Amino acid sequence: MNTRILGTGKYHPDNIVTNEEISKRVDTSDEWIVQRTGIKERRVGSVKNDEMPSGMAARAAKIALEQAGVKPDEIDMILFSVTLPDYMFPNSASVLQHKLGIKNKCACLDINAACTGWVYGLTLANSLIKTGVYKKILLCGTEMASGFNNWDDRATCVLFGDGSGAVVLGADDSENGSQIIDSILTSDSSKRESLILPAGGAIEPVRQKTLDENRQWMSMDGQVVFKNAVKTMSSHCATLLKRNNMTVDDVDWFIPHQANLRIIETTGQLLKFPAEKTIVNVEKYANTSSASIPAALHEAVMDGRIKRGDTLLFAAFGAGLTSGATLLKF
Ligand code: ACO
Predict the structure, then answer these.
(1) Of 42, 174, 195, 280, which has the highest C-beta tally within 10 A?
(2) Statement: the pTM of the whole predicted model exceeds 0.70
């Protein structure tokens, strides 16, 4: 039994925030942001428009379900990668079950591995499908990064955006070749404080002191994250190719986490992967954390770049510092 991506979907809020708009609030410029990150604009959702994680995920999931030809009640499990969930509990997967009108009481689980969460979820879902535990899994990566973004910190606020990507995964015993070929997941906890949202958890519940010290927002050591990202993503991809007797020539499309164009380009150079076979949309959406790979996948499927039978390589990194890569036949 293999795992096949039966359908894909995505959602980004309509509200566009350009670099020019951000530069009216903090001391930055379109030129600096484009040169350091490749980002031109990002989408920012609002709770009023049902663009909290569950709301964005519901829109992406409906597209993925329709494309897959799968009814909501056929889903055996919802895996929901999210860094800032709707609530601390119940989990966002359960809220999504309600929003999709699923009545079958399917299993619902949130995953928090930051930007790597959706790639972690893909390995988990593949294991559950291959071992026959479940037949159909809805895997979402959805992030309302605007909720942890300090809009007065120029070092981080220019980097992130909101959005959702979803896939429906199904057990497949046909000869079509679709399968998750291999994956690697790691986490280097020695660098756990280089990307952190310190308050809001059990160690530091949000109090007036937290707000006074601005500890309710994310903080990041950009250079540590940058170096770790290019190193882990390129080495994980190289390992996957080597242990499956493949080279970059065997891969049709590389979809790296859309954090920053320089990270994507440096990773590609280290891997000696051709830029023209790398999917990039970071200029439009910025870093949407764990939504970025499934949303970019959907975009490339819809515009005809990615076709059935293509070999795809995904790579991601994020807080933890987590990292992961997956090689698959679409
Ligand atoms: N506009 C203008 N100047 C800025 C801005 C800005 N938005 N941000 C920082 N600067 C300034 C700094 O203050 C510094 O000024 P100084 O030299 O006077 O001190 C100068 O620019 C250089 O700052 P650096 O931090 O050295 O800039 P760098 O070239 O490293 O680029 C960046 C910063 C873009 C953040 C880079 O380090 C990076 O991309 N890191 C990875 C970030 C990332 O991808 N994070 C997401 C992680 S995924 C997840 O799980 C959430």
Answers:
(1) 42
(2) yes
